[in-house]
Amino acid sequence: MDNRPIGIFDSGVGGLTVLRQIQKILPMESLIYLGDTQHLPYGDKSKEAIVRFSIENTKFLLKQNVKAIVVACNSASSVAVEVLKETFKVPIIGVIEPTIKCISKRKTSSILVIGTMRTVKSNVYQRKLKELNSEIEVFGKACPLIVPLVEEGAFLNKSSLLYNALINTLEYYLGEYRGKVSHIILGCTHYPTIENEIKFVMDGVELIDPGECAALELKEILENDNMLSEGKNRFEKFFVTDLSEKTEEVAKIILQREITMEEVYLPEL
Length: 269
What we know:
Structural class: alpha/beta
Number of strands: 10
CATH class of the largest domain: Alpha Beta
Number of domains: 2
Largest sheet: 6 strands, parallel
Number of helices: 12
Shape: globular
Strand content: 15-25%
Low-confidence stretches: none
CATH architecture of the largest domain: 3-Layer(aba) Sandwich
Distance between the termini: 34 Å
Mean pLDDT: 94
Strand order of the largest sheet: 4-3-1-2-9-10
């Protein structure tokens, strides 16, 4: 057994949806979350910058005595995970490889990847899916207007104009794929917050949450290495590199509960 906490980092607070999945699948574990809000979004940064930020985040979490680290950010998962694995000794899990593993256990012939412009243009999911099965038809769709709507809490009140705007926006982005795909990969950490709305617009399509896939991968690693926690003195801590009222508001919207966040300074490498 290992009662040390699990570390999670993202470029902002969207990765709290990944934390939520880890809490659901591994309820006995203590968790430490780091949102690098000073540098968000990672999606418009260079590969070198993302790797540098990811190393800084990892070093901070290791100082908190974590036993494993989950890279909740799609951009960091695509360019930094392998560097982190080569540099640090603790188990490090991204969100992309576990998602491909999840898909390998499903029967599918057509998949839509939705995410930020960076994630979709990187073709990382598309490329790995084709490596898995060259016959899978893979579509990619950038949905840049969804994150602002989620952060405004558009999904909270179904009778509001904002909720109607969210549904119309989803229809605008996804409507053309209705009937063409069997699965959708939620390639942005904000998207699991509006699973019900996506299912409403894309009736009959199965959604794949990379956060859930990463949590399942983490559970398997901890079980195999006898690193699961007994749940004694379980705790959670939340850190960000730039604390603002907006950050706290979005965190509350995503988790649907109040949390206490602490601002930390990470020295540049």
